[in-house]
Amino acid sequence: NNIKIGNFVAGCCIQKLGARNGIPGRKELKTFLGKSK
Q: How far is CA 31 from CA 1, 27, 34, 35, in A?
């Protein structure tokens, strides 16, 4: 359940960032994924 919740929150954050800054690049995704681990 925690993994599902984490993925849901991460998805929402990515959508918010995408809406604000456009689709994030690979560098931004790597940074985001690196922080989430």
A: 24, 6, 5, 6
